[in-house]
Amino acid sequence: MRLLVTGGAGFIGANFILYWLKHHPDDEIVNFDKLTYAGNLENLSSVEKNPRYRFVQGDICVSKDVVAAMDGIDTVVHFAAESHVDRSILEAAPFITTNVTGTQVLLDASLKAKVKRFHHVSTDEVFGALPLNTPDKFNEATAYDPRSPYSASKAGSDHLVRAYFHTFGLPVTITNCSNNYGPFQFPEKLIPLAVTNLLEGRKVPVYGDGKYVRDWLYVDDHCRAIDAVLTRGRVGETYCVGGLTEDVDNLTIIKNILTIMGKDESQIEYVTDRPGHDRRYAVDWTKINKELGWKPENDFQTWLNLTVAWYRDHEDWWKRVKSGAYKEYYAKQYKSAL
Ligand code: NAD
Ligand code: DAU
Question: Does the C-beta of 126 come closer than 6 Å to ligand 1?
């Protein structure tokens, strides 16, 4: 395969490129990334000299650059997005531009290039929120009910991808997955933010009552799920992907991290809640399990221990990421805790 990976310098995209080069020794990858605040080529330093890997800096909203990058490509894996809910509450416009318009530009270029597969990486947040203490889970038939500018923009992109399948016959697949965690995650997201704050001797900001539930998916398990869909999935289909967590709330995760790191609960700081905060997500991944044989490799505790150890061992990486513009964002987002 010759893959165009959009957003490959971000958290999941970089993990995916490292995974794919390792597991598919005949394939070539072009990484097309704008390098926003979230894009970091350091994530890919181990493969930058690999002859099967090439980086192109570009914006998915700029058609001529996307069309040029698509030359010789047969498979598109689309990660590029504005991905952080809190930033979408501070400013929605870049989310609509990149996530909706950018996806449409990419779909048009993919049609023109007659790619064999367009895989769209989406989120469980498009389904809205579930009540606490119910057995309900999201699945492929769940109605869309996005509730933040971020999830609304991702819902828009999902609809466009399906529209290009139905209207133009573009061979698409979609995965809607839950919260990823693991190496190279930008420390604006809960787990890397908590671990790196604690390593810096700072407290962990917990929104509201902390009783918000997410479904946690280790990034390598996610990469294997995309591999399964790309190589064995049915065109036109959507697959939900989730982890091996049973309704673990944010406070429980933070306490778990405190234990792993030998700290006590005085390091928790309750801060102003996120507006419109979705109470609970849970993903039913029966379809991808039954059809493609995918399941997470390890349980949450095993992957969490490894994740904490990774940030402990890669202080240079996150210290560089947490300098500069990150500090301005942190001050704006967490003013109630400063
Ligand atoms: P991220 O924010 O870490 O990385 C996004 C990448 O996209 C960055 O490298 C950035 O430079 C690039 N990018 C942004 N705008 C661009 C543009 N206009 N043109 C080209 N590149 C651009 O995001 P992530 O956490 O790795 O998420 C990747 C994808 O997975 C996103 O589509 C996100 O919606 C989806 N997703 C993420 C999670 C999660 O928990 N992180 C869960 C479900 C779905
Ligand atoms: O569900 C998939 C989604 O998961 C992805 O589509 C998004 O790209 C990704 O950012 C993530 O969204 P969340 O909003 O769930 O992730 P975040 O890490 O921002 O927050 C996780 C939970 O932790 C959420 O309930 C909010 C809470 N939180 C978050 C931060 C950053 C806190 O309590 N304190 C914090 O400082």
Answer: no
pTM of the predicted model as reported, rounded to 2 decimal places? 0.98
Reply yes or no on whether 150 is catalytic. yes
- Residue 291 bears catalytic tag: no
Give the rounded distance of the alpha carbon of 11 from its chain centre: 7
Q: Write the pLDDT tens digit of every residue in 89-138.
A: 999 999 999 999 999 999 999 999 999 999 999 999 999 999 999 999 99
Q: Is residue 273 part of a domain?
A: no
Asked if residue 262 belongs to a domain, the reply is: no
Residue 177 in contact with ligand 1 by CB distance below 6 A? yes
Gap between the Cα atoms of 28 and 1, Å rounded: 7
- Is 253 part of a structural domain of the chain? no
Tokens of 113: 């290039």
Sort residue 113 into left (φ over 0), alpha (ψ -120 to 50) or beta.
Answer: alpha
Tell me which residue of 218, 230, 118, 95 sits closest to 164, measured CA to CA. 118
- Check 33, 65, 82, 125 and give the catalytic one: 125
Of 79, 85, 123, 256, best ligand 2 pocket probe by most atoms within 8 Å of the beta carbon: 85
Which domain, by its residues, includes 111?
Answer: 2-181+216-243+282-302+326-334
Around 334, how many Cα atoms within 13 Å sit in the side-chain half-sphere? 21
Mutation choice for ligand 2 from 78, 185, 214, CB with most ligand atoms inside 8 A: 214
User: Domains in the chain: how many in total?
Assistant: 1
207 forms bridges with which residues in the sheet?
A: 271
In a domain, 126, yes or no: yes
The ligand placed nearest to the CA atom of residue 124 is 2
